[in-house]
């Protein structure tokens, strides 16, 4: 098949359609002698005559059989070009997304649904992972983008973009002594047993909670651990201790739970997008752009200090 190009196939289809070398050459914007040479070369490569030249141009039986294959070649090529363009533009492909279950209670599901309506040819797979699990998954190639509880400070091999920031509120059971206290101050927390998630699941957030409390003059007593925020809330409702939880979780109206602010203790948690700086998946870039835009609409001050 050496020497056979797409141009030869396209030229053959034009000649077959108009049954005239002159008109086909004009439509192809090439000289007629060149078109004749191309058809001769095509016949040499195929190994048989495809066109009758005189008295009128028409397909030979071999040309008739070759015609649908030639059309298929061009159609497949056009489809391939379209697929390549969509893939390069991030409009076609596969996205492995780290998505902790509790984020389903936030604004993110609607933003992701809007993304999927806009990019129907992107298949999104969700993996329920902790922040630490997502960071490991990114580096291992298990996920393309993570939604993590970590501030937006990119470092090393990861790009981290903050998309939401919310206060951490003190969570106590209704019968706890702090539930109805008029003003809760940091020193009121000193003797309380605290419940937090394991440090290994979100080290940056865990450390920031303890550090913020320390700066306010309180050494938190971590008495128990819950596997995730939902487990932490369950333990608080069971009066096993108190905790700090994101405002979005504390305002769900769960029975058996009271959330309060602590005077002089302004803790926050940042939700960020994370992905590898070396990522070559165009879908990642498009998804990040879409989520960042949704974030600006939802939280205009995200990323500002």
Which descriptors apply to this entry?
two-stranded antiparallel ribbon, alpha/beta, 11 strands, 10 helices, 3 domains, D-Maltodextrin-Binding Protein, domain 2, Arc Repressor Mutant, subunit A, rod-shaped, 305 residues
In short, what is this structure?
With 305 residues, this protein is of the alpha/beta class. It has helices at 6-18, 21-28, 32-46, 61-88, 108-118, 131-140, 203-215, 229-237, 247-250, 282-298, and strands spanning 51-52, 58-59, 93-98, 122-127, 145-149, 158-172, 193-196, 221-225, 243-246, 258-260, 268-276.
Note down, in words, how this protein is organized.
Pfam families: HTH_1, LysR_substrate. It comes from Sphingomonas sinipercae. Residues 4-60 form the HTH lysR-type domain. InterPro entries: LysR_HTH_N, LysR_subst-bd, WH-like_DNA-bd_sf, WH_DNA-bd_sf. One of its GO terms (molecular function) is DNA binding. The longest helix is centred in the N-terminal third of the chain and has 28 residues, at 61-88. The chain has helices spanning 6-18, 21-28, 32-46, 61-88, 108-118, 131-140, 203-215, 229-237, 247-250, 282-298, and strands spanning 51-52, 58-59, 93-98, 122-127, 145-149, 158-172, 193-196, 221-225, 243-246, 258-260, 268-276. The chain has 10 helices and 11 strands. Helix 1 packs across helix 4 (61-88). It is rod-shaped. The chain folds into 3 domains: 6-89, Arc Repressor Mutant, subunit A, CATH 1.10.10; 93-163 and 270-298, Periplasmic binding protein-like II (D-Maltodextrin-Binding Protein, domain 2); 165-268, D-Maltodextrin-Binding Protein, domain 2 (3-Layer(aba) Sandwich). It starts with 5 loop residues before the first helix and ends in a 7-residue tail after the last helix. The protein has 305 residues and is of the alpha/beta class. Strands 3, 4, 5, 6, 9, 10 and 11 form a 7-stranded mixed beta sheet that branches. Strands 1-2 form a two-stranded antiparallel ribbon. Strand 3 (93-98), helix 5 (108-118) and strand 4 form a beta-alpha-beta unit.
């Amino acid at each position: 098949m050496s020497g056979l190009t797409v141009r030869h196939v396209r030229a053959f289809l034009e000649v077959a359609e108009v049954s005239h070398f002159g008109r086909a050459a004009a439509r192809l914007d090439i000289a007629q002698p060149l078109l004749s040479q191309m058809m001769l070369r095509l016949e040499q490569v195929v190994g048989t005559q495809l066109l009758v030249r005189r008295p009128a141009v028409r397909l030979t039986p071999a040309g008739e059989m070759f015609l649908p294959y030639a059309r298929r070649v061009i159609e497949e090529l056009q489809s391939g070009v379209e697929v390549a363009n969509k893939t390069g533009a991030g409009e076609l492909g596969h996205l492995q997304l780290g998505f902790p279950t509790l984020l389903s209670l936030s604004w993110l599901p609607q933003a992701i649904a809007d993304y999927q309506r806009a990019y129907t040819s992107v298949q999104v797979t969700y993996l329920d992972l902790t922040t630490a699990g997502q960071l490991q998954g990114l580096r291992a190639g298990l996920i393309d983008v993570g939604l993590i509880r970590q501030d937006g400070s990119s470092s090393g091999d990861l790009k981290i973009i903050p998309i939401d920031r919310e206060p951490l509120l003190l969570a106590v059971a209704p019968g706890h002594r702090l539930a109805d206290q008029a003003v809760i101050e940091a020193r009121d927390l000193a003797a309380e047993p605290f419940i937090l998630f394991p440090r290994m699941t979100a080290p940056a957030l865990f450390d920031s909670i303890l550090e913020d409390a320390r700066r306010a003059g309180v050494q938190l007593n971590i008495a128990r651990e819950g596997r995730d925020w939902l487990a932490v809330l369950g333990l608080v409702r069971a009066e096993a201790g108190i905790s700090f939880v994101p405002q979005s979780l504390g305002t769900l109206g769960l029975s058996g739970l009271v959330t309060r602010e602590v005077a002089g203790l302004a803790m926050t948690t940042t939700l960020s997008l994370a992905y590898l700086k070396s990522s070559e998946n165009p879908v990642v870039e498009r998804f990040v752009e879409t989520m960042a835009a949704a974030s600006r609409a939802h939280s205009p001050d995200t990323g500002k200090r």
